Amino acid sequence: MFLQIALGSALLTTTILIGAASAMGVELALASMRDWLRAPPHRPKLLLVIAAVLLWVLGTITVGVWLWAFAFHLLGVFATLEQSVYFALVTFTTLGFGDLLLPLEWRLLGGMAAANGFLSFGLLTALLVEALRQVRIDQTSGADRA
C-alpha cells in the first residue's frame, strides 16, 4: 500500500510540475506576442490563440497519460503497452469503462490516476479560460487607445 501511495504521489507531483512548467511557457509565449495580438484584426488572432492553447492542453494531458501508462507498463501491471495506455487514458479522463482492471495489489493507483486527470483537466481548463480572457482584455484595451 505504501509503495502505491509513494509511486502515485510521485506521478501526481511530476504531472503537476510538467503542467506548471508548460503553463509558464504558454504565458511567456503569449506575453511575447502581446503587441501583435493587440493589433487588428483581432478575430483571426483569437482563433489562433484558441487553437494553440487547446493543443497545449491536449499535449499536457497526453504527457500525463503517457507518464501513467509507462509506470503501469514498467510495473508489469498489464501485459502490453497498449493496455497500459488504454487504462491510463480511460482512468485519467475519469471515463472508467471497467473493461480492464488493475490487479488488487495496484488498485490504489487507479484512483490516484483518476484524481490526477480530474485535477489536470480542471486546472488546464481554468488556465485556458484565463489565457483567452487576458488576450481579449488586451485586444479591447488596445482598441480603446487607438
Structural key phrases:
mainly alpha; elongated; 0% strand; 82% helix; 5 helices; 146 residues
Give a structural overview:
With 146 residues, the chain is mainly alpha-helical. The protein has one domain. The chain is 82% helix and 0% strand. The chain is elongated. It starts with a helix and ends with a helix. The mean pLDDT is 92.
Write the layout of secondary structure elements.
Blueprint: H1 2-32, H2 34-38, H3 42-74, H4 81-92, H5 107-145
Helix pairs in contact: 1-3, 1-5, 3-4, 3-5
Run of helices and strands: HHHHH
* Strand fraction: under 5%
Mean pLDDT figure = 92
Query: What does the largest sheet look like?
Result: none
**How many DSSP H or I helices?**
5
Derived from helix and strand composition plus strand pairing, the structural class reads mainly alpha
Number of strands: 0
Distance between termini?
Answer: 62 Å
Q: Spans with pLDDT under 50 lasting ≥5 residues?
A: none
TL;DR?
The chain has 146 residues and is an all-alpha fold. It has helices spanning 2-32, 34-38, 42-74, 81-92, 107-145. The N and C termini lie far apart (62 Å).
